[in-house]
Amino acid sequence: DQQVKQNSPSLSVQEGRISILNCDYTNSMFDYFLWYKKYPAEGPTFLISISSIKDKNEDGRFTVFLNKSAKHLSLHIVPSQPGDSAVYFCAARKSGGSNYKLTFGKGTLLTVNP
Amino acid sequence: SAVISQKPSRDICQRGTSLTIQCQVDSQVTMMFWYRQQPGQSLTLIATANQGSEATYESGFVIDKFPISRPNLTFSTLTVSNMSPEDSSIYLCSTKLAGGEFNEQFFGPGTRLTVL
After folding, report:
1. Are A68 and A51 in contact (CB under 8 A)?
2. Which residue of A has its CA nearest to B5?
3. B51-71: pLDDT as tens digits
4. CB B48 to CB A101 under 8 A?
5. Inter-chain contact B104–A46, Cβ cutoff 8 Å?
6. B-chain residues within 8 Å CB-CB of A44?
7. Of A10, A48, A60, B97, which has the most beta carbons under 10 Å away?
8. Where are the extended beta strands (E) located within chain A?
């Protein structure tokens, strides 16, 4: 049972344009959502996150939008740069106590073409 | 952030053997986590390893198959026992620093395991 879904295995965009990566979840108990970026032969690195009490969080070129009613979030990268080419993982966590378990999607490979 | 290293970075092993993966963090941390990423799949949490207590395993993972040690606040090992080709995966350790707002975790580079 895939509780976090990234339905696009890959995405290709031109440098300077917007990249939009999508993520859907099924578990209504998820309260925190995180995006990780992963380069080949490296571990995932934390990129940006959002709490369910917000619908938008912005950090430089990266913005995450959360639509809680639709159980959908998206990561916008503007403008996209070739160095953004990587696999992007969406992850979710339930709130409360010492529950730090992250549930990940399968990832989306973003390719930014010069 | 935390800097995490893993050894080995990759290995090719024979069926029925065991491999121990080491994870070293550059600072003292309470919680360490072990994940597995099978080919084409998402990262899946195997267990949480807190120093001074037994590791807590997720559903589908058992201690006999994936014994974990946590001897101090900077180090942990994961052993993949009696390996089969289905164990071919990337194994990653991670940690969470105290006070992180969203409990973001920091990951090591991973160990790519191939079982023949």
Report:
1. no
2. A43
3. 888 899 999 999 999 999 999
4. yes
5. yes
6. 43, 92, 107
7. A48
8. 4-5, 10-14, 19-25, 30-38, 45-51, 56-59, 62-67, 72-77, 86-94, 103-104, 108-113
What are the distances in angstroms from CA B2 to CA B8, B52, B65, B100?
19, 21, 28, 12
A92 with A3: CB under 8 angstroms? yes
Write out pLDDT tens, residues A88-114. 999 999 876 666 789 999 999 999 999
CATH at residue A88: 2.60.40.10
Question: Taking a C-beta distance cutoff of 8 angstroms, is the pair A38, A87 a contact?
Answer: yes
- Chain A, chain B: beta-carbon pairs less than 8 Å apart: 59
pLDDT of residue A2: 82
Residue of chain B minimizing CA distance to A51: B102
CB contact under 8 A, B31 and A100: yes
